[in-house]
Amino acid sequence: MVQQALDRLHGHSLDGQAVLAELGGLEIAAMAGFYLEGAALGVPALVDGFIASAAALAARAIDPAVADWLLASHCSEETGHKLALEALQLNPLVALGMRLGEGSGAATCVPLLQLAIKLHAEMATFAQAGVTEKD
Length: 135
Prior knowledge:
- By secondary structure, the protein is mainly alpha-helical.
- It is built from seven helices and two strands; from the N terminus they run αααβαβααα.
- The chain has one domain (2-123): 3-Layer(aba) Sandwich (Rossmann fold), CATH 3.40.50.
- Strands 1-2 form a two-stranded parallel sheet.
- It is elongated and about 65 Å long.
- The model has no long low-confidence stretch (mean pLDDT 83).
């Protein structure tokens, strides 16, 4: 079945939508749309797991600017996930050897990201902290 889809694409212009239509399921198309809309709105999105990475690759093929709005939550133990993250040029936020699925990487990273945002927002400036310039 996959080979038949590849055969149908052979010799045609390989735009992201054509590849997604031939090779992606509804869940991958929906996730790709989510990434596209998030990027259009300027909202970052966590890429969590192999299927999510496939959707992110499809979204990037449709609009390369999507890549600027993607964060990889983790890298699962599946070989394909590592290859997809490399193709997306994303470094995972955590490497915990997970292969649980169900959004477990994103669920692990959301509190970490919330903490980082809080620290950044509440961190004192050099002036507020009384730090002087170097002599």
